[in-house]
Specification:
Blueprint lengths: L1 E8 L2 E7 L8 H16 L5 E6 L10 H6 L4 H19 L4 E5 L2 E3 L1 H7 L3 E5 L3 E3 L11 H4 L5 H10 L2 E3 H7 L4 E3 L4 H13 L3 H13 L5 H18 L1 H6 L9
Parallel strand pairs: 2-3, 3-4, 4-6, 5-7, 6-9
Antiparallel strand pairs: 1-2, 7-8
Helix pairs in contact: 1-3, 3-4, 3-10
Length: about 250
Amino acid sequence: MGVSTSSPDKGIALVTVDFPPVNALPVQGWYDLADALRAAGRDPEIRCVVLAAEGRGFNAGVDIKEMQRDTGHTALVGANRGCYEAFAAVYECEVPVVAAVNGFCLGGGIGLVGNADAIVASEDATFGLPELDRGALGAATHLARLVPQHLMRALYYTSRTATAAELHAHGSVWRVVPRAELRAAALELAAEIAKKDGYLIRLAKAAINGIDPVDVRRSYRFEQGFTFEANLSGVADRVRDTFGKGESA
């Protein structure tokens, strides 16, 4: 349980997330993930990182129950900062990051895959931001990297999800495979990347980030300000308390 790192093949680091039952990460989990990604990127022997998850789905976002147990804003601030660091660690990893997405990829999961360099998904994978149903905001920055602008807005406002096949049609998912083949397909892409010169692939990652039209760190941080405003106003607690109860705000 937690975040682990292994090296299944030469030049590849596999960072695996495992927080049962649904990979909704607690505050410390986001920081642990950030640390693992940064450490893998710093390793001179690594030329590509695969980010994967065990269990029913890739990521269900933050641990809502952890926030509900907190009578103040400590958990909220911790989750904001932890997500910020984890998303940035994917984007700023010194080598390319391939996300292997199975099942649901929601909330914070979008922040991770939206900042990844490539995505391989299983046929049952779904992607979305149910933030408005959870009393939160954020990660529209990253959803906008996966789908066109108007679709991003419609998905965000409705809390609907998109399938792996739909994202593949938009060009943001590299390959869609049966779930049993997901890990192998992601490692296959990583192995192709890892064949490149280690120094050159790092220069390529830095160069591509440098020409990005959107500063993802600043853009996401701007969104987080509205998340905190929603909490200060009380509307976040009101909506969040209905989460999992089949009620609407």
